[in-house]
């Protein structure tokens, strides 16, 4: 039987990680949960994020026994991973900014970390920089607006390039900035638009492909322990609040390989 993998985020950002995992592992069963009633996580209290993550994943696991839970959100990963790993017997995989590969790629050793306001302030981000990027200058932009722009794009709306440039304004004239870390899972969804604003940047790095390889390794090592009791006929996406443009959004989700949108 094919493994069942759940991606969990407060919005649609985790679809960027799902895309990389699905490309590498096309035969898995995929579930996605968008906790849109609590979007964005970067603005919420840590104990609230933990409680919602555990409760929602428990609810989905009861319906569809999970082999892997992917916390496809940097903020939720930093605060909820220990609780989730204690709660569930399946693999729980988190998301962290791709600081190590960015430091290795950069030729000018001037790197930009683009993430949410909560992520750029986290101690673990400082520790990653101290561990892997001591030879680099790492500049940070924390933005909730960019996540909102990505959400709107996934709902079929045009990207507001004026607003995007305003968020990226500190880097527009940074000629030696050659590498940008897309440190929120929403940001790869607007990578092309970000590139338009920052033409001097040679490398845009995210953690999607690394997560895909990690999941492949975990599943290869436990191929005989798949927990799924039945093969799902349709990939499903869950939400925690109704969307105003539900029908339009469902049509977009079909293009991503999801057949059903269900309210939890």
TrEMBL record:
Q: Please give the pathway this protein is involved in.
A: Cell wall biogenesis; peptidoglycan biosynthesis
Top-tier EC class: isomerase
Asked if the keyword Isomerase belongs to this entry, the reply reads yes
Q: GO terms for biological process?
A: cell wall organization; peptidoglycan biosynthetic process; regulation of cell shape
Q: Which UniProt keywords apply?
A: Cell shape, Cell wall biogenesis/degradation, Isomerase, Peptidoglycan synthesis
Top-level taxon of origin: Bacteria
EC number per UniProt: 5.1.1.3
The active site annotation covers 73 (proton donor/acceptor), 184 (proton donor/acceptor)
Which molecular-function annotations from GO does this UniProt entry contain? glutamate racemase activity
What is one Pfam family matched by this protein? Asp_Glu_race
Q: Which reaction does this chain catalyze?
A: L-glutamate = D-glutamate
Question: What's this chain's function?
Answer: Provides the (R)-glutamate required for cell wall biosynthesis.
NCBIfam families linked to this entry = glut_race
Full protein name: Glutamate racemase
According to its UniProt entry, this protein's organism is: Conservatibacter flavescens
